[in-house]
Amino acid sequence: xxxxxxxxxxxxxxxxxxxxxxxxxxxxxxxxxxxxxxxxxxxxxxxxxxxxxxxxxxxxxxxxxxxxxxxxxxxxxxxxxxxxxxxxxxxxxxxxxxxxxxxxxxxxxxxxxxxxxxxxxxxxxxxxxxxxxxxxxxxxxxxxxxxxxxxxxxxxxxxxxxxxxxxxxxxxxxxxxxxxxxxxxxxxxxxxxxxxxxxxxxxxxxxxxxxxxxxxxxxxxxxxxxxxxxxxxxxxxxxxxxxxxxxxxxxxxxxxxxxx
Length: 260
Prior knowledge:
The protein is mainly beta. Helix content is 7%, strand content 67%. It has a single domain, classed as Porin.
């Protein structure tokens, strides 16, 4: 990949930066870059998340502390790759301490086409550390030159289980596991992921995605990565993607997060 050395150099440079930190936060900024195998230009993304009450960090896995404490938030993301741009607004709202709703709206556009997506997930904590749920999304696609319009619905079911404790006086290493199945038209996909937290600030993760397109073509992708918090404000997430049975290394990405 032509930008592999550039991405690694940025990771090394950014990791040397230090910030002041506090025990709580209510806002988060993210900046991400990636080198993708099948594109001439690189991926760039920025994000902002606001939490409606302070999130504490003392004895939690810092990366998913807001989820473990069930803190409501709203999120804004902008992504750009080649001539394609994507804007998404989403939220996570916890109800009565055992329900969660995640509404979302996104728009993807390039020079020839635009796509709109609107939907939501609704989940329930059947146990304190086990969530199950389902999602429904509506897609609409507009082609600017021949004025074709296409729409479709996406249906998904998912489950998430974590061995990490929400309220504890000491941190205990543990797993965060997710599984999701999706159907849109004749296409189906299954995504399984697992992250292991060795300490509040360090984790390794991996995931497998299986996509069946129109019941003819199957694509399997594997993602591996690590997340490390240099202090309670600043983290680096470094990952890579591999196509199984394809061209090998598919992507290399770096995400920096700053909380305050």
